[in-house]
Amino acid sequence: MSVSTAAATQTICAPLPVLGRDVTVPLVTGGEVTYAALDYAASAPALQRVWDDVAAYAPYYGSVHRGAGYLSQLSTDLFENARRTVAEFLGCREGDQVVFTRSTTDSLNLLAAALPADCQVFVFETEHHASLLPWRDARVTYLNAPRTHQQAVETLEKALADRDPYGPALVCVTGASNVTGELWPVRELAAAAHAHGARIVLDAAQLAPHHAVSVADLDVDWVAFSGHKLYAPFGSGVLAGRADWLTAAEPYLAGGGASRKVTRREDGGVDVEWHESAARHEAGSPNVIGAYSIASACKALTEAGFDTLVAREQHLIEKVREGLADVPEVRILSLFGDDAPRVGVISFVVEGWNSSHFAAALSAEYGIGVRDGLFCAHPLVRTLLGSDPQTQGGVRRPRGRARREVPQRHPRQLRRGHAGRARGAVRERGARTGQ
After folding, report:
1. Residue 376 is among the residues annotated as catalytic for this protein
2. Fewer C-beta within 10 Å: the chain N or C terminus?
């Protein structure tokens, strides 16, 4: 059973076009301008190919694992094929499970619910809240922000070696910062974790849209990411990796689909036999469109070629950073320094500006969309700003925090002048302090 997809008629090229690239928005100064969406780090639009694939399948939508009819069988095949596509995209090992969730946040909360008894969790304060906060029922050690890759590895090694008791442990680390865009030494951190009897989960929400991710090559135990960061914003995410902890845990949600057999007992209660596959943690009717859209995005990015996409992105990063460096009022935020490898996410402060006012001005006067604030990584941003971690000083300081991302897959938009427009707007607005 199959559905004709956009790949059959679309010539693969890099960059890949996205929906909304020609949307115009009104300006307070009058007229309209093509919108420059420069915060794909928060949520990315759908690739045109993903949208076309979803539209081609939509008339054939049916229940997954719940019907004998043709559409149900086709949808079930599509859903399970999507699981296999994601496993290939992530370079999963034999025996690894791919569980479809709602998002990275949902994936990490699922893993948190599956931790074995007395498991200790180690996480750097630099993490996004999706990685920082799910471990409420575990003993958590929060590690201070490192300033080099080597310091990150050494800090983790010491914390793991000194843990008491020396029992099961999990390390959670991002692959690329959602604030600075900087890459983390995932392979080295994984080696350190395993050397000390711990496991590691990779938050790849910002990494997977920009770089190839291989569970096997990085030697991580799990990886989590969101469809809406991967140009597939249809409500699904992924947790992929080792099956043992997931199989041993109670289902994340209890209900149909997770259960294999339910029987009544003589005392009036019920006995439940749960699935041991990924379905154990996928109770309820699966989001087949969400899973299919992720698979479509995985195929599109793979076919476009990450080497080509990364090279394009690095060129754009250099151009934007050079432009911002020419603005005296701007300071780019960085944890590991200017020479650190990074993806196309740039956060900066503008002297004399409140962040929300600066972002609002870029939108209203220039049609440029950025994000401002603490980016769901409050401890990290406060550390980078040098503010009191116990207060909201990072927000109230007379500086702006406007994050803009260089869209890795959308340099066509930048060739139309969006990158130059953004640099010019920051330069012009930065010179008008706080107006």
Report:
1. yes
2. C
